[in-house]
Design brief:
Largest sheet: none
Number of helices: 16
Helix content: over 70%
Structural class: mainly alpha
Distance between the termini: 126 Å
CATH class of the largest domain: Mainly Alpha
CATH superfamily of the largest domain: 3'5'-cyclic nucleotide phosphodiesterase, catalytic domain
Number of strands: 0
CATH architecture of the largest domain: Orthogonal Bundle
Order of helices and strands: HHHHHHHHHHHHHHHH
Length: 395
């Protein structure tokens, strides 16, 4: 007769093991799942005239088949076997029957080739969820587990496709399982196809909506480039105007100082002889004015960013051939070929324009940095000149 006591002890042991050691994050492979598998094993085994000893081993395997999850996720079947063997040996269970239990547990492993009816029953019970109307809700629990323990993340479309592939590839080995779950499995496959179609259409609509919100080639993108180029040109003109103003102002001051110093030996010579300290403010103004005008000239002078161009760079689109500093260094034939290639490929064209804007920005940055230096030197020079003049006159 079947020993119901050993089965009861096994169920209590598994319950305690899961309660104490199983992660709460295992939302699918938990005690509820195990108890449902045991129930399905009982239901399926009723269709066959199994000997009591075989049914006993099958139920024990059902209770222990997922206990390995209390220690590891991958390869849990091996750990489940170890836990089952330890428990059964402590209970004095026969070694030959322990082997039957462990062989059944291994039958729940993916792509395992079953060798007998007991293994087929447990394997069918373990995947019985695919033939139930609860398949879709419990599948989401499995998805969460995979994200947590296997770091597998699926989009809704990918998950729907993965589940459909699984339903189509899975099959029940026993006639009892086919009879019990086959009809609902067919329904689930049709429903999964429907869900995949809905998710795919929803994803396509979302992508279309996102594309519509992006700048369109003939409007948004071209307007953006046009505005950006205009802004760069305007900022460059402003910088040049400011630099020209500083050049003109400092040139006038330099002319006056040079004229003043040139008159030192005649009209103003006596004044410098009496007050040589006046050379300090005059010299300060001269030097700072010179520094300011040099910085302004450097800011206003033409700046060209260019690189050594090789034909392979043009073909690989690693150089901006829209900029004259680049394309004037390559033969006309290479330039024409590169331009035709750009006109055929929108992405390459935009990449070149983006690169051009970037280097225009670098030129502007240098212009304004030198211009800032020029204005700073001029301001400091005026302050020092006034202070030194006040000190000189107070003596």
């Amino acid at each position: 007769m079947r020993d119901e006591e050993i089965i009861r002890k096994a169920s209590e042991y598994v319950f305690s093991l899961f309660k104490e050691r199983l992660s709460k994050k295992l939302v699918y492979h938990n005690y509820k799942h195990t108890s449902e598998i045991v129930k399905e094993v009982r239901n399926l085994s009723e269709e066959y005239n199994l000997e009591d000893a075989d049914q006993e081993a099958l139920l024990l395997a059902a209770w222990f088949h997922d206990t390995g999850y209390s220690e590891t996720y991958n390869g849990h079947e091996d750990r489940s076997n170890d836990i089952a063997v330890t428990f059964l040996q402590e209970q004095g269970y026969p070694e030959d029957r322990i082997q039957v239990v462990t062989d059944c547990i291994m039958a729940t492993k993916a792509n395992f080739t079953t060798a007998n009816l007991l293994q087929e029953i447990l394997a069918d019970a373990d995947i019985s969820n695919i033939g139930k109307d609860t398949f879709f809700s419990t599948a989401e629990l499995l998805r969460v587990e995979w994200e947590i323990f296997l770091n597998r993340f699926y989009s809704d479309t990918e998950w729907a496709q993965q589940q459909l592939d699984f339903l189509l590839s899975a099959s029940f080995k026993t006639q009892a399982a086919q009879k019990r779950f086959g009809e609902q499995l067919t329904v689930n496959i049709q429903e999964q196809r429907k869900r995949l179609k809905e998710v795919s259409e929803k994803h396509k609509k979302k992508e279309k909506k996102q594309r519509e919100t992006l700048a369109q080639p003939k409007r948004g993108i071209e307007t953006m480039f046009h505005t950006t180029y205009n802004n760069h040109m305007s900022l460059s003109n402003i910088a040049d105007n400011k630099a020209n103003m500083m050049i003109s102002l400092n040139s006038i001051i330099l002319s006056v100082i040079i004229t003043y110093l040139g008159a030192k030996t005649s009209v103003l010579g006596t004044e410098f002889t009496r007050n040589p300290i006046l050379l300090v403010p005059v010299g300060t103004l001269l030097l700072t004015t010179l520094g300011s005008v040099v910085s302004a000239i450097m800011s206003a002078q033409p700046e060209v960013t260019s690189f050594n161009i090789r034909p392979n760079k043009v073909k690989s689109k690693k150089v901006n051939i829209l900029f004259f500093g680049n394309f004037t260094k390559i033969p006309l034939s290479d330039f024409q070929a590169g331009m035709h290639e750009l006109m055929r490929e929108k992405d390459a064209l935009y990449s070149n324009m983006i690169t051009d804007i970037y280097y225009l920005g670098e030129v502007l940055s240098k212009k304004y940095r030198l211009l800032r230096i020029s204005y700073t030197i001029f301001m400091i020079g005026l302050i020092l000149t006034v202070l030194s003049f006040v000190v000189a006159m107070s003596r």
